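Fold this sequence, please.
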Amino acid sequence: ILFTFGWIAGLYAMLFAHRPWAVAALPAAGGLACFLAWRFGRMSLRQSACGVLIIVLSLLYHAWYLTAHESRIIAEEGQTVEVRGLIVSRVEVDGDRAAFVVLADRAAFGEPGGSAAVWRGGTERLRAVFRLQSPVEQRRAAQWEQGMDIAFTGALVRPQEAGNWGAFDYREYLRRQGIRWIVEAKGLEGAAVGTEAAGGAAGADAGRLEAAEPPDGGLREAVYREASRALHRGLAAVNRIRENMAGRLDGLYGETYGGLMRSMVIGHRDHLDEELDRKFTHVGLAHLLAVSGMHVGIFCGVVLLALRACGVTRETSLVVCTLLLPAYVLLTGAAPPVVRAGLMAAAGMELARRGRLRHGLGLLFFAACAMLAWKPFLLADMGFQLSFLITAGLILWVPKVSALLPLRIQALRSAAAVALVAQCTAFPLTIYHFNSFSLLSFPANLLLAPLISVVAIPLGMLALAVSYVHLPAARFLAQAGNALNDGVFAAIERLIRLDPWGAVFPSPPFWWISLYYA
């Protein structure tokens, strides 16, 4: 816990503070907190010194991280660039626009027909945007996928900054993904994908890429590119499996609830009905539309029960479930909440196997350290923030709140405590990110969330699994699920009539959020 707080203090100061005083303020506050904790006997001198050392190490590491992830491209906006690299994200085709991320390993700058500028790439991440000119190009772009080699020509564009204070900053959004430049191309003419790109056919003036100065990273860069190619081809195979699962859920649940069940069961939010999404958000149930810790808990529970029913020992069941978790996390989209839950579950089951499982807070901070070491900019991700804060709130406060509630039935008291703590913990971040908070959130989460999480989602998982074995049985399960969904939406409609507008809040300042949690 001490390590995590110290690490975050240095991380936030280096990656997100834009003024000199802000860079120094948070580490100084962390160091002062360590000193006061020692002074008043809350920590030993050794622990306090370790806290200060962790903050210093975090500052140094993230200063290096920023330098290492700065763009190597030295060019002017609007300059023509010929790129060869690897597609490392899903290819999003929306109307006349196709967009994805490219890990460039070669680039030549300057007008076509001229001499190539000095190579400044290596492992540069670029946002590629193609303006499609015909339905034929739409179909062609739709066949591209993650892990394919690509070569194309386009114009360099700087991402737009926020036009007004507090508005969405697209440049900062891409910076947190390690992207500093956008390459815009008109049409697919001259673009080569797959074996053509790997073989050197890059369209117009492809020879300039071959003649360009090689990357300066040498063997390290080559190994990194090959590892990235293998990784993203594997992720593309996972995406194909997810698409197959999404299609099966559509077929089972029909047009009305297919998108809803895809979102709740495998985290596939493409084509989710906007009206369903709006209603869930209005009553404070939007968190059920994303795969999170609840889904991981259901998955682990089902696997462990099935293995124990088959006569497998407890220790072997825990090992098998731990090995299956990475596949489940990938198949459900690997969003920050499900990664957090997967890490906690894997560590928890290993500790349980060894008989050393004590408290969930240590697992939570272990998951935070692991995720921030992998991708420091996750600290600014809304899903990451809400997932960790709500989980910490549940671990710390549910037993205390449950003991205070004047309810005699234990199950009802526990459910009310969970709903109340989750809502109170999420409130500041919810109004900060969304500027709204549903007054219906507590009754909806108390009455409807357990029904959806305990019945509807496991039923959807079961229907999906059974569909690969016996389709009529899966359709019967889906029909039962649709009947339950009808009842849930009837209840949601009644709740919305009680409060049709909701409550609107301004985004609170940082000091207000800190004071609230204190």
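DSSP finds 19 helices and nine strands in the chain. The two ends are 17 Å apart (CA to CA).
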